[in-house]
Design a protein that fits this description.
By secondary structure, this protein is of the alpha/beta class. The protein contains eleven helices and 16 strands. The strands form three sheets. A nine-stranded mixed beta sheet has the order 11-10-9-8-12-6-13-16-15, with helices on both faces. It has a five-stranded mixed beta sheet with strand order 2-1-3-4-5, covered by helices on one side. The radius of gyration is 23 Å and the shape is elongated.
């Protein structure tokens, strides 16, 4: 998420941003707008200009060739291919460089990108809807609808901005979801997310909505690497239907090791991942510090049933002192619902 402006003689002469993956970077956008007027100007940019050739050419070369006098950047690029080298190239060319102006704001803007290039895994958002007493479904598993229509529209908007949507097999068997973005009138879909099912024994039904649509929108099936004969037959049938298998090892507790799976997703270029449940999957991700952000929709309902399903279900007691700490709480009212957006 990079934006840039060019200023000359205290006047704004060009502005631009990186519009899409593979498109011209923000610096190139403003240099093209300014043309010859860029000579002697100051470039303000939210991220260190790149100095390598990827989908586009090096921005540092374009800045030097345009005759820009000085560059003010909000933050250093954490990508190992850049990481200070862009600043160094500009300084060698005699361009004044000032960095770390509005650094905190720039880092918050680019949390997903920073996570992927520093931790080599995608930025993971957990989302669920619950009653005021923390229930995500009644004891029979019914959850439609806890949240209201405005909250559901917001979820579809979020789905339209991520690279993958992850769900546990229990949620698939209970709800048969499509896991697609349907934001309604006026809503935008920026990306079509891959659907990912955590399903250790390959129980994903062939007649499920996910399998029926997997030729159009890909489905990845994360399963244990050692399957019994029945599970192998189910896996073969799912592959024939168009589902892509992604084997994973089990840990000593009997759960799939998901950290290596997420690293493989990062290699594929996935930056943002939305996890929509279920409770055991969310518990494992939280326990292993694999959740970066949570979107919690709270409806003005009280179920009052101790046997109802809760958002996060660990198989072990957790003392209050061991509770996960959340920061930067944002609260949005969506008709009668509340959306709590927090960072962990």
């Amino acid at each position: 998420m990079v934006g840039a402006v060019l200023v000359k003689n205290e006047r704004l002469i060009a502005r631009g941003y990186h519009r899409y993956f593979g498109g011209p970077h923000a610096e190139i956008e403003v240099l093209k707008q300014a043309g010859r007027n860029a000579r002697g100007a100051t470039l303000y940019v939210t991220l260190e200009p790149c100095c390598h050739t990827g989908k586009t050419g090096p921005c540092t070369q374009a800045i030097i060739a345009a005759g820009v006098r000085s560059v003010v950047a909000a933050m250093r690029d954490p990508d190992p291919r850049v990481r200070g080298k862009g600043f160094a190239a500009l300084r060698r060319a005699g361009i004044s460089v000032t960095r770390d102006v509005c650094k905190r704001e720039a880092m918050e803007l680019n949390r997903p990108f920073i996570r992927r290039v520093t931790a080599e895994r995608p930025y993971i958002i957990a989302k669920w809807a619950q009653t005021m007493d923390g229930c995500i479904a009644d004891r029979a598993g019914a959850s439609k609808w806890i949240s209201n229509s405005a909250s559901r529209r917001r979820v579809h908007e979020l789905r339209g901005r991520v690279d993958a949507i992850v769900v546990g097999i229990g949620s698939v068997l209970a709800d048969d979801p499509r896991l697609t973005a349907r934001p309604g009138a006026g809503g935008k879909i920026h990306r079509t997310a891959v659907r990912v099912v955590i399903d250790s024994r390959c129980r994903l039904p062939l007649q499920s909505a996910l399998v029926r649509t997997c030729r159009r929108i890909p489905v990845l099936l994360v399963h244990q690497d050692r399957l019994n004969p029945a599970a192998r037959r189910r896996r073969t049938a799912l592959i024939a239907a168009g589902v892509e298998p992604l084997p994973a090892q089990k840990n000593k507790a009997g759960f799939l090791e998901l950290a290596p799976v997420f690293k493989r997703m990062a290699v594929r270029g996935y930056t943002n991942i939305l996890v929509e449940g279920g409770p055991r999957l969310l518990a494992q991700l939280l326990k292993n510090n694999l959740v970066d952000e949570a979107w919690v929709f709270i409806a003005p309902l009280i179920l009052g049933d101790k046997s109802a399903r809760h958002a996060v279900e660990l198989d072990m007691p957790v003392p209050l002192a061991g509770a996960k700490k959340c920061t930067n709480l944002q609260v949005t009212r969506l008709k009668d619902d509340l959306l709590l957006r927090v960072w962990l």
